[in-house]
Amino acid sequence: MTAAHLRESTQPLSQAFDVALMDLDGVCLLGRDPIQHAADAVAAARSAGQRMVFVTNNASREPEVIVDELVAVDIPARAEDITTAAQATATMLADELPAGSVVLAIGGSGLRTALADKGFRVTTSAHDGPAAVVQGLSPDVGWHELSEAAYAIAAGARFVATNLDPTLPRERGMAIGNGSLVAAVTNATGVVPDSAGKPGAVIFHQAAERAGAEKPLVVGDRLDTDLAGARAAGYPGLQVLTGVNDARDVVLAAAGERPSFLAIDLRGLNEAHPAPVSDGGWWACGSAGARYTGGAQPLELRIGDRSVALEADGPDAVPVTVSLDAWRCLAAAAWDAVDDGASLTRGQLPLLEVVAPR
């Protein structure tokens, strides 16, 4: 991909792309809770011929456990459909370290299994002289485990993290992610780890190769991991609003994190996606339009014959309700302006609530 702008698909994405590289948390489920429309949308996409590969930065769970969690929310899956950051990290290390090397694993059973499957001798103690430390997320990780990592790294072990996500979407909100725990080890050692997980390209390339994908599509809820990873891998990305980032975040997205397609939820897999077009200073899509005007209220929205400047967020502000096409136009206008040197900040725009057409 070249320009970081929205793309057009006259076909539903489930027909235009042979494999969907699906994030889990915030896209297919929230913790153990289902996400509205996700199961039906996945079933419809599969009926249209699209295959699903589930790509997750969460390295704590075995693929079989992830399968059970998906089946529990009515999304059938097989272990071979799962690509985890633990698997991606183990594969990356297998290309760098001799077979049988000792690796200190900080994390859950999914990480230990992935490393053992690649022929590594897995330990939890720095006394064993590990060649590398791999840190993944697990609710059991605490001071003792993090200190063992610090001891080994100080002794010269290579430091790798399965991912650097600061938060993790759960049923109750945003929980602490692996990146926040990694930061403790970095603070203690001064060593910043490499990572094979999102937003790196490695995990997406591995997943696409395993699936034999010819035209993969990345589907995610998080700009700085899922969509940045899609850009890094050279694959188009679909952003949904069921997880971390909201519609305003997308309008303000940096070039390296911008999605190619926008949707409220996974129903967007089974829809065509028009792209806004430049029209006399406006970006138009359907009956909506938007343009950058600068000033205190830098974005102007047009719905039919009516135009309105979007007022900045404030203590008494309420979300501005917009259509999917209007959201597309706002993103196109903002991205074009920023790429041309303009400055847009979160405080200059209201919260946006995107609603589906009735």
The Cα radius of gyration reads 21 Å
Tally of helical segments: 11
Poorly predicted ranges (pLDDT <50, ≥5 residues)?
none
Which bin fits the share of residues in helices? Answer: 25-40%
Record field, number of beta strands: 22
Approximate shape: globular
Q: Looking at this structure, what is the CATH superfamily of the largest domain?
A: HAD superfamily/HAD-like
What CATH calls the topology of the largest domain is Rossmann fold
Overall residue-averaged pLDDT value:
94
In terms of structural class, how would the helical and strand content be classed? alpha/beta
The first-level CATH class of the largest domain is given as: Alpha Beta
Roughly how many Å apart are the termini? Answer: 33 Å
Task: Give the DSSP E fraction (strand runs of 2 or more residues).
Answer: 15-25%
Major β-sheet strand ordering:
5-4-1-13-14-15
The domain tally reads 3
Instruction: State the major sheet.
Output: 6 strands, parallel
CATH architecture of the largest domain: 3-Layer(aba) Sandwich
InterPro entries: HAD-like_sf, HAD-SF_hydro_IIA, HAD_sf
Protein name: HAD hydrolase-like protein
Pfam family, one: Hydrolase_like
Organism: Georgenia halophila
